[in-house]
Amino acid sequence: MRLVNHGVSSSLLEKLNDEIEGFFKLPLEEKMKYKIRPGDLVNHGVSSSLLEKQNDEIEGFFKLPLEEKMKYKIRPGDVQVYGTVVRSDNQRLDWESQRVAMQLFGYLGELLEMKMGAMEELFEDGMQSVRMTYYPPCPQPKMVVGVTPHSGAAGITILHQVNGVEGFQIKKDGVWNLDTTHSLS
Questions:
Q1: What pTM value is reported for the model?
Q2: Domains along the sequence of the chain with CATH
Q3: pLDDT of residue 63
Q4: What residues does the Isopenicillin N synthase-like Fe(2+) 2OG dioxygenase domain cover (predicted)?
Q5: How far is 40 from 132, CA to CA, in rounded Å?
Q6: SS3 of 133, please?
């Protein structure tokens, strides 16, 4: 489903876009400071399942738990790499995304005819994180395979696409349909 009029400030989403693009413009040696290490919550890398299927057309991802969860296992320098969003806007992003997710859980619970508040209660103490996946332009776009189906073990995924690049597809009735993006949905 596409969510519009969600109440998340457009200026916050624009700052997030700038920070995401800024991270992936860093030199590789800078990004590698955040490579995946056992036990780390903040990391940069490439999915091993994608490495088997692709060459270097996929840049990878940067995963960051949101502020309240960041008290644990942060290496020196982690906060600076993600810039403004972590330092000044991360708490707003945390609250806003949690608010939207909890509203969605409430609606899902209602549709499933669950007791009021039961669905939200199931997820209220869960971990919340931001995962940024970047796909640079590819000379052979038909050869690119994106994030693998069912690659996230999450109660709910809220997708925000930077720069309006089309490519996200939704499978309905056995057919993959291109989702044309709206920059602030």
A1: 0.59
A2: 10-178 (2.60.120.330)
A3: 53
A4: 128-176
A5: 16
A6: strand
